[in-house]
Amino acid sequence: MTDIAMHGHGVRGMKPETLHSFDGIGDPGKFGVMFPNLLPLSASDDALAELAAAMLDKLDAKSNPDPAGDNRNIPAGYTYLGQFVDHDITLDTTPLDQQKADPKATTNFRTPALDLDSVYGDGPGIHPYLYQRDPGQPRIIGKMLIGHTGESGDQNGRAIPSLPNDLPRNQVGHALIFDERNDENLLVGQMHLLMLKFHNKVFDKLAVEQPNLSDGERFSEARRIVTWHYQWIVLFDFVERLTEPGLIQRIKQEGRRFYRFKQRPYMPAEFAAACYRLGHSMVRQTYSHNQVFNPTEDSIANGTLGLLFFFTGKSGSIVGELAPPPPNGPPPALQTALPSNWVIDWRRFFDLGTPAGGNFALNLSRRLDPMITPALHTLPGLTPNAPPQQVREFNLAFRNLRRGVQIGLPSGQAVCRAMGLTPLKPSQVATGPDGKAAKKHGLHEETPLWYYVLKEAEHFHKGERLGPMASIIVAETFLGMVHGDHESFLWQQSDWKPELPGAQPGHFTMADLIRFVGDIDPVGKALEQVLEPQP
Fold first, then answer.
1. For residue range 50-79, what is the model confidence (pLDDT) as tens digits?
2. Is residue 44 domain-resident?
3. Can you tell me the distance from the alpha carbon of 116 to that of 109, in angstroms, rounded to the nearest whole number?
4. Which of 21, 135, 160, 308 has the fewest CB atoms below 10 angstroms from its CB?
5. Domain range spanning residue 226?
6. How many domains does the chain divide into?
7. What is the SS3 assignment for 22-77?
8. pTM value?
């Protein structure tokens, strides 16, 4: 492998034609902008509030999302993989109610990298509470700590025992994880748990295949394998679903044109406050969570977004009326763990090839378009009969639009012109009820960047993937974060291919990760054992 000197550093495994990717606006720090010379868009709060109110997704008579708005190319699990990734690249352990004090996230904010520090912290030596101890001995082994659920029941009165399927928690239910934002809704919490189990599975695999490694060596090698496969998934499974197949490889070969730095990656405002907020459009109002909680009649209740926030330690409560005690058992005075009947069925969130039928269905994400699910228009905490100016403060679409104006983002059209792309015509922005509201305030001519990203995806690809401007910004930013990480596979071994088994040799997806971990439908497996005839 050839070392190429640049800026006084060795850049291993990179081809000469990619080196210009590191030249550009210098190192702006942890937060910066891709297009520093563009003028900020100005818009009044009233105009933004009216636009936000028009960005309302449709529900059917049973409050389920209109199937016409589903994105058949992106299963719903990628919505929450995206949130997990966001918490990894913008690691901020400030309590949620204090983060508003720093709208640009310039403090308590680590250099963006896909390094899973939200899972590993600073390792067993600095954050031992994240790791398992050897039974009977004081030493910490290199496996992640796993929590257990509380016993509960299903809709037919059958007991579901405690399962090793919760985040580790203390005696009052607080999750023992490095970034507490990963306990703010149940789906991102279960995603975090999946990554903990992924590490442990790799650790155990190494114990068999390389028994001479010390615990420390095995931990380091397991972390490398997990992190590199995670980086691969983000680039070639997640980002390329959002953009287009082959885009990452093409940018890798040709070099980044807009997300450029000399030595250290930064978080671009155009990405963080606009393009990567695409996930808010992907959120569903309800989910078929498992065989106990789903939209069918054969369930305890529908898997609503509200309940997925309720059954957490960060945003809600892990104690609830929909967590019944085991049959014939006393009701618990206080439950400090997730009820076992709320453990996720991964087949419903990623396509593992399971055919639909009965109460099983694969959840699809919502289209990448301006329509935002009603639950995100009325965030928790809104008081009854609140005045309109207070109501809009609890509308996530309004918050996103106003945040863009507050931090000085340019319009979507200005960004397109700076990138050499032809912007959408005003008439193309002004379509639909949301476009009508935009046109009323002149926002169809110079459009808020976040709204433009969604409108661009709707116009070019019917909301199935991002349009040209947002695709380039998202792909270049993620590729640059991995490029700029000296521990990443692109830096260490740019021609590396996944070494763990996948459905396609040399490739690794979220579906492959779930199959490798093997804990696909814990609730279904537990109920099957209940139904087995006793000897």
1. 999 999 999 988 889 999 999 999 999 999
2. no
3. 14
4. 135
5. 3-32+63-368+463-531
6. 1
7. HCCCCCCCCEECCCCCCCCCCCCHHHHHHHHHHCECCECCCCCECHHHEEEEEECH
8. 0.89
